[in-house]
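User: Hey, my collaborator sent me this sequence without any context and asked if I could get a structure. I don't really work with proteins. Can you help?
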Amino acid sequence: MNINQEIRRIVEYQNTRLPKHDRKSKEFLERLINEIIDSYKNKTYNFRKLKSFSIKQGTKKRRIKMFERFTTEEILCIFLKRELDRTFHIKYPNRNAFMRSTFDIVSSLKNMNDFVIFKFDFLDFFNSISSEFVLKKYIEDKIGDREFLELLNEFVSKTKYAYAGLNTSNIICEIVAKEFDNRLWIKLAGKGVIFYKRYIDDGLIIFNRFIEEEECKEIINKVIEEIFYSSQSLSIKQCRTKLNEEKLNYIARRNLDNNEKKFNFLGYEFAFYKSSSGDSGDGKLKIKYGITTDKIKKYNKRINSIVKAYVEKSISEELLRHQIKAFSHRTVYMVNHYKSVIWKSKGFISNYCELRDRTDNLTGETENFLKESIIRSFSNNGINPPYFIRCQNELRDQSIYSLYNNLKNNKTLLFVEKIGINFNTLKKMCMQVEIDTNNKTYDDLVREYLIKVKVGH
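Assistant: No problem. I've predicted the 3D structure and written it out in structure-token form, which is a compact way to encode the shape of the chain:
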């Protein structure tokens, strides 16, 4: 284990992640790297030096713990995460790939004679996982490097839990969660499972036959007990993992009627009902797709904040236009990270791309949001829509500022010079929102523009 070389790579990589104007000089980095190496060798670091924060997400507050940037503790934490990644070869879940397969299977359910959907969620997942417990039960015997194992033992003995915010938390949680997945598959054998996905702390099981809700809960609780707890008398911290009873969702086909039954998964909403007498396809199963009420509230709040800033004269009409256009489009750009290039896709259109081919089967709340939210934000703020918003009902859904139109047609702002928005056009866009373009590269302007229009970079 060449930890000196790894420390150097991590510090240099972390520096490339900073905005260009915040990046450290080579001289500063060299001093910092030597200080961290000395701190590691002399054991002057302290993994108890965690900073606690509360982040507000909608109506909820999320507790996180982190080390200060560019400290020995943070760099060693990243090092531990990388070494665990190399040892366990964990593939982290991809939300879009998960949802693609989820939509495929859910769409096929209307042709099945019987099925059961069971959605579950772990309560405060990261903060419930004892990193000490996971190390002893699932990691220790797979580590061959004694120096690395000593450092990892020291780390978990001081931090105790896989707190949200720590670089190591994702890998530690995924190691034990993979054990949970494997054991759950064994327990569900012979029960008619045709689909099982878990995205961090959210799980979805679909059966092709009937199974009682209580049996589903009993199976999962039994697996939680076997994986996250120990019957042996251990002197280390145990996990506190359990189901979030408020987020359990059970839908059985045989219980459906003309009242909608819904479940949410990763921000999407799925609604099931049987068509009532007089509808086309009388008595057949119908499925509607959308986004959750919480996410709609989140995006409505974001739109209203943009319009409110205009009403209060904090932003110009031209900046308002650019911000609404950016909000209602998918934004794609590239960023350089260390020795590689990463493509990024942001925005509502990108986050809910699976609805694109299902605009004829949207839930009422979602369709109303897509068609009316931007127009409604102006009336909510007591003003008429500006000139660039098409208000006529027959034209509204065709506007380049319409979420509905842009979702349906996958409208994209492509900030890649050779195949998308060129340098001259980008300069004009920047000047329209009062960004100085002198002596700046294409990437500089992309970053400044995306920050100004509230996409972020």
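In plain terms: The radius of gyration is 25 Å. You can pass these tokens on to your collaborator as they are.
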